[in-house]
Design goal:
With 385 residues, the protein is α/β, with parallel strands linked by helices. It contains 13 helices and 14 strands. The radius of gyration is 21 Å and the shape is globular.
Length: 385
Amino acid sequence: MLTEWNAYKRVPLPVASAKGSDLWLQDGRRVLDLYGGHCVNTLGAGDPSLGEVIARQWQRWSFATNLLDHAPRRDFQEAFAANLPAGDWVVFCSNSGAEANENALKTALAATGRRLVACFTGAFHGRTAAAAAVSDTKKAAFPQAPFEVLRLPWGDLAEAQARLDGRVGAVILEPIQSLAGVTIPPPGFLAGLRQRCDELGALLVFDEVQTGNGRLGTPWASQHYGVIPDLFTTAKGAAGGLPIGLTVARAAVAARCPDGLLGSTFGGGPTVLAAAAHVASRIASPGFLANVKGASASLRAAILGAGTPTKRNPVASIRGEGLLLGLVLREGESAAAVRDHWLSRGVLVGTSDDPRVLRLSPALTLEPASAARLASAIAESEAAA
């Protein structure tokens, strides 16, 4: 007998198929997916052109050892480079966000020769050893961290500047903390960290697993905020649904590391990189990022304008950027309960570590007009309350 490890608390939703931003249930009902596979379905479910790319590459050359070069790797590098901040960069391919973050930290410590990493309260960088060490979780994932950790309060630049010193090799953070409840950086926070890292010779690492790949309406959060890190990572939506992790470093940083520091069996395979090249090309295509901004504006307007004069809208405010949005609920409202109410009316959203914050991370191809379906769900839910 074999049963699944009890790791996930699943939502009882009998999905039969999915297309774009719609989930079709076994009884024929349609649900608007505003969670997007947790920032994975960049182009929506079952995108036809992405499917063609994957099928074509699978038939041509499905997988290759990293001892061999292949055209999809070169195509990916060209497409991915078009979206990068200015500068000389190198990329290493792995399989997940946690692995990408592990590689970024390994690189930063090797390049600086230091053993102290600074991170922030509310952070989540993954469940592997190094990634978990710099995450702020309820339970420690490992008996001890593989390096020294300095944990700083999120958003407090003055304290960060005071406590960061010459022992620090890397400062790692999410430009927007998603799991914590889509908490955004205070004005000047990222720029101040950049300046302090420069003063100390420490390396600034952005975890863009969720904020990257066009989600904020720019290719990367670094471009949105105008602060460029020394290394950044991404995963989730970078290949539109296939497993990928990417560690991107300034070429000068990578040059300070010993050969053979990084390695991966499956990272950088031709099928995954063909998909990632297609996603990167779509992000750079005319109108794509404008749609992200338009869909974001439509969702904001629909949410804050929903409800009736006699019933309260449960959403008090919205934070976040682009299509990574946190819906802050009114006092006394439960995110889990509101999520269930909306799901019963045909809209799927996510929760967060903050019990009063819902998260939206839909496909970046979401049509702005779809926001009306969320507004209807809110109004119907409130009318039935």
